[in-house]
Design a protein that fits this description.
The chain is mostly beta strands. It has no helices and four strands. A four-stranded mixed sheet has the order 1-2-3-4, with no helix packed on it. Strand 2 and strand 3 form a beta hairpin.
């Protein structure tokens, strides 16, 4: 579970160990931007391919709802 703050900017300093989630709606889709991903590990990688990242990483998610389709 995560708490998503709607229609609020990220805090200026988001270098804490806590991820921060900001969201807004684009039509029927909830778009979530995540910052504050911990990057102080020796081998910080975002995926199994070894793609590196830093504390400036932003992760975007789009969650849509489809109702009544068959």
């Amino acid at each position: 579970m995560r708490r998503v703050r709607l229609n609020e900017p990220h805090p200026f300093a988001y270098t804490s160990l806590v991820r921060r989630f900001r969201g807004h709606y684009e039509g029927d889709t909830l778009v979530i931007d995540t910052v504050g991903v911990k990057a102080d590990r020796k081998y910080a990688m975002i995926d199994l391919f070894g793609t590196p990242y830093t504390d400036k990483l932003h992760i975007g998610n789009a969650i849509g709802c489809v109702i009544g389709t068959t």
